[in-house]
Design a protein that fits this description.
Length: 108
């Protein structure tokens, strides 16, 4: 990316690249220095936290949590009919991509 910017003469140096989940607590901390957690709730879901011992931001990929979740018949139906059955169960239970189907099925 830096080479492409340089080639086009764009006066910008890339120092870091991060995804939205990691960027959320970092950006928030600019105005709220005590911010330690960032949560993404959109088409998918994810979270990151600031590790106090190292100062690192840890992306926990919580959409992929699969163990011990209290699932309903609708949750199981959505999972079974998804592109990746058995994966990202937590994400399928709360993220925007699946909410419309979830509401429709629960209102039957």
């Amino acid at each position: 990316m830096q080479r492409a910017l340089n080639k086009k003469g764009v006066p910008l140096n890339i120092e870091a690249i991060c995804n939205d989940t990691v960027g959320t607590p970092v950006a928030c901390a600019i105005e709220h220095p005590t911010c330690r957690v960032g949560i993404i709730m959109g088409t998918g879901t994810n979270a990151a936290y600031c590790e106090p011992n190292t100062g690192s931001v840890i992306n926990i990929e919580w959409g992929g949590l699969n163990k011990g979740l209290p699932r309903t018949d609708v949750d199981r139906f959505i999972d079974a009919n998804s592109d990746h059955p058995g994966q990202h169960l937590f994400e399928k239970m709360i993220s925007g991509l699946y909410l419309g189907k979830m509401v429709m099925l629960n209102l039957r």
